[in-house]
C-alpha cells in the first residue's frame, strides 16, 4: 500500500523526534493513538519505513567518502549488497549509471579509520574499485 499524506506527516514527525510518543503524534495530527500506532506498524512491517539508530556524523565530527565501484557482473549484485549490509561503516549505497555502477557512502571516525574503510573495498572480489571522493562536513541532514 503506498504512503499517503498522513503517513508522510507521521514520517516527518518521526524524523524530527523518533522517540515522540504515539499520544503526542496523535494530538499533533488530530488522530487517535491507535491510528498512529497502526500506521507506523504497517509502514515498518511493509518495509516502507526503517527505524534505526545512527551516528550523528554532523555532531560526531567523523569523516565521509563517496566511493565509485564497479560491480563486476549482474550475478554479483546480491553478493555485493549482502557485503554492504554487513559493514557498519557503510551509510548508504546507490545503484548508479556508467562504469561506477555502485556508489557507496562510507564513514570513519578519523582520517586513518576512513582510509582503512576505503581500502577494504579494494579487496572485495565482487567489485572493481574505481574512485573515492573525500567529503566535507555535512550541511543538509543528520546521516
Give a brief description.
This protein is of the alpha+beta class.
Count the domains: 2
Q: What gross morphology would you assign?
A: elongated
The secondary-structure element order is HHHHEHEEHE
Secondary-structure-based class equals alpha+beta
Number of strands: 4
Computed CA radius of gyration, to the nearest angstrom: 19 Å
Overall pLDDT, averaged?
87
Quaternary status of these chains? single chain
Give a quick account of the main beta sheet: strands, pairing sense, barrel closure.
Answer: 4 strands, antiparallel
Under the CATH scheme, which architecture of the largest domain would be assigned? 2-Layer Sandwich
Topology:
Blueprint: H1 5-16, H2 22-29, H3 33-45, H4 57-60, E1 63-71, H5 77-86, E2 90-95, E3 102-108, H6 111-120, E4 127-135
Antiparallel strand pairs: 1-3, 1-4, 2-3
What does this structure look like?
The protein has helices at 5-16, 22-29, 33-45, 57-60, 77-86, 111-120; strands at 63-71, 90-95, 102-108, 127-135. The model has no long low-confidence stretch (mean pLDDT 87). It is α+β, with helices and mostly antiparallel strands and 143 residues long. It has two domains: 5-45, Winged helix-like DNA-binding domain superfamily/Winged helix DNA-binding domain (Arc Repressor Mutant, subunit A); 57-135, Alpha-Beta Plaits (2-Layer Sandwich). The chain is built from six helices and four strands. Strand 2 and strand 3 (102-108) form a beta hairpin. A four-stranded antiparallel β-sheet has the order 2-3-1-4. The two termini are 27 Å apart.
